[in-house]
Amino acid sequence: MVASIFIIQGFDTFRHPEKVAPRAEPVVRPLSDRFTAVPAKTEDAVRLNGAVQVVAGTLLALGRFPRLSALALAATLVPTTAAGHRFWEAEEDADRMQQRIHFLKNLSM
After folding, report:
1. DSSP collapsed to 3 states, 59-98
2. Within 10 A of 41 (CB to CB), how many other CB atoms are there?
3. pLDDT score recorded for residue 93
4. What's the rounded Cα separation, in Å, for the pair 87 and 99?
5. Average pLDDT of the chain?
6. Dist. CA 98–CA 90, nearest whole Å
7. What sign for the dihedral angle of Cα 30, 74, 101, 21?
8. 4-17 core/surface letters (b: 16 or more CB in 10 A; e: else)
9. Number of neighbours of residue 70 by Cβ within 10 angstroms
10. What's the pLDDT score for residue 41?
11. What pTM was estimated for this model as a whole?
């Protein structure tokens, strides 16, 4: 059941990277400057992240390579959480609280 969120969200991100690319830009740019494996174009990096989530989530759901799959999913959550749930930048208290909840949820996964 845990794998389902990664499969669904990863597939949506893979198909529509333009939805999350603007929020991912502050995280992707420094990573692509430091690591050659990270694409310089934000939409490509987001698409790659989504593809890894689909593949690793599917493998986890099928019970194939569970530790490797879990490690890959955890690795994708780091940039996803840093880019998508920047609660410290939220201006409104309600938005800040909601983003903090999502940030901590991802952190706990």
Report:
1. HHHHCCCHHHHHHHHHHHHHHHHHHHCCHHHCCCHHHHHH
2. 12
3. 87
4. 5
5. 91
6. 10
7. positive
8. eebbebbbebbeeb
9. 17
10. 94
11. 0.83
